[in-house]
Task: structure prediction
Amino acid sequence: MRRLLIRNGRVICPATGRDGVADVLIEDGRIAAVGEELTAPGADTLDAAGLVVAPGFIDIHVHLREPGFTHAETIATGSRAAAAGGFTTVCCMPNTNPVNDSATVTTYIVEKARREAVVNVFPIGAITKGSEGEELAAIGSMAAAGAVAISDDGRPVMNARVMRRAMETARALDIPVIQHCEDLNLSAGGDMHECADSVRLGLRGIPAAAEDVMVARDILLAELTGARYHVAHISTKNSVAMVEFARRRGLPVTCEATPHHIALHTGHMRPYDSNYKMKPPLRGPEHADAVVEGIVRGAVDCLATDHAPHAGDDKMQEFERCPFGIIGLETALGVALEVLVHSGRITLERLIALFTSEPARVIGWKGEQARGALKPGYAGDVTVFHPEYPWTYDVKKSLSKSANTPFNGRTFRGGPIVTVVGGEIAWKAPGF
Amino acid sequence: MGRSLLGIEDLDRAEIERILERAVAFQPHGGPTFAKVNTCTGMMVVNAFFENSTRTRSSFEIAAHRLGADTLSITASGSSVAKGESLVDTLNTLSAMRPSVIVMRHQASGAPHFLARHLSTPIVNAGDGTHEHPTQALLDARTILDRCGRLEGLRVVIIGDILHSRVARSNIFLLSKFGASVALCGPPPLLPREMGAMAPGVEIEYDMRRAVRGANVIMMLRVQLERIHEPPMQAGEYFRFYGLRQEHVDLAHPDVIVMHPGPMNRGREISSEVADSQRSMILNQVENGVPVRMAVLERVLLP
Result:
């Protein structure tokens, strides 16, 4: 029996309310016990004195690019970047080639991840065939093969009837529907947030309303169908307000925010630098503030990176030709600590919840798959981090295959130290 | 990016004044053509035009020759771009041939700004997408100065497709730096309200008759159909509300001048009566293109 004892760390587990120095014992890949001065003869030990010991971080929105775009990222490299960011579980979006719209592709990803990934990888299936927005994908078969949610991320479902049918199907399977909210008619051709800066730079704008109108429509459809509905990478003031409105009506509507949408706004963009180009775009400061406020009030359920690797030459082009997206797994904790905790906006415990118990609730892992808390029987995933030590992000040392980030060279206060997945050490900070 | 000229927004008033004053020395002043000065003999100017252009490219070529520099002009069709090479690779290739300056026009906003970060050769922006066209604003300013003697305190109205116009942006930045008041006028979809925040002294006016009242300068712009990816306003409707006619000129200052950066669509944004009138400075603008570009190239080539 393999055993790992993580000793003397400050254990913070929002789901159980524990916050204090304790030991965590993992046996056979699962949490066996959490308590003071545990003894486990023969167990490997990890001294976590002076460090925070949390449930393994979960990122429910990443792009691993495999199959199809392995020049930008692979399941192997993306999972290593995840581990280096303190993540023990990631959910990968289906916009691969081929699109993950069938049990075959879902199974391929699950099997490939089992062999090559150093963290848990759960696929998200497509809503429609080829993510073309017209005909529902084989949702039941994908769910049976291991898909934990459905989404046409990057290619929002524009047809309200198709979205309704997807929600009805997902409800019966008890999986969430995740929408990238963007009315494509309103955003058509846009490269950045529509504002005074887009006009000044001569770039086509994506208005905040492009996100808002789809959030509004989908909330009404969630009410109609009773589906669990999740807004990906929420970025606008009105969308946050509408998610709160939906929850006041008792609807199972949730949302996530990315670290970059709370740390950066249009005023931080280096003109025509594609490391600041993503969807939704960096919004104006009033929107970034509203998302942070939403996190503080509990309107935003969890953080997710939308880790979106693109190969260097794809991002070395004229701004309007560059693809959307930035990598984010390795900087997520540093950014979130800076914007939310060191600034005094939320507690460290709440931040951990946004990375653990809350995303676990959004997806709804149960039984054998239960995760996101340090409870006996739960997945033996633990994130050990230091909330204060200063470090500087050097993208040249990134474990991701891509380097498209606006945070290169940025110094953070606090970051991951050891990432434990199923009782095994998946990553350790250099020098620890 | 050192001596590059990427946009008017980054220039200060003194630098602009130096260029405008230097241009005077190159004007014909009644002579048959522009001065031939040969201050840049032995230098090489590469004109890399990734978007069609007649007047700007020939104007830059003449300017370079009058300075005594050699020129090489490359257009997108027939170049390596058509064979799928990336812009960075194309420019790096050109740069390896050691030109003194690359004059560049490109359909993407910010393309020269992006390249300037990766290239040691100075770049002169000859128009980037819907962003800036700095030499056009400089020659427009030279033309206004020739006629009005000043920029400060003037009321300049820019009418038409402001959203897609790099000429408008560069002119807005320049005129604002010199204390002119700038009124922008055009159909609402082509004139977002945010444009009023681009620079101090800029106002938005959707009613053309109100906009032109008391104007010292009226600048007309073409509707850039090639950049509008949706059905545009019908031509008749457009001309009725935003086409410049004599009745508008009559509402302006008695000494008003009318300008157009070209290419001009008669009967769409301007009537022939106005375009061919004494008020029209359209050919003066073209003429001033050469001396102003001589001054710009000299600034880059002779630091």
About this structure: Chain A has a mean pLDDT of 97. The interface with chain B takes residues 188-189, 194-196, 198-203, 271-273, 313, 316-321 of chain A (CB under 8 Å). The first strand of chain A starts at residue 3 and ends at 13.
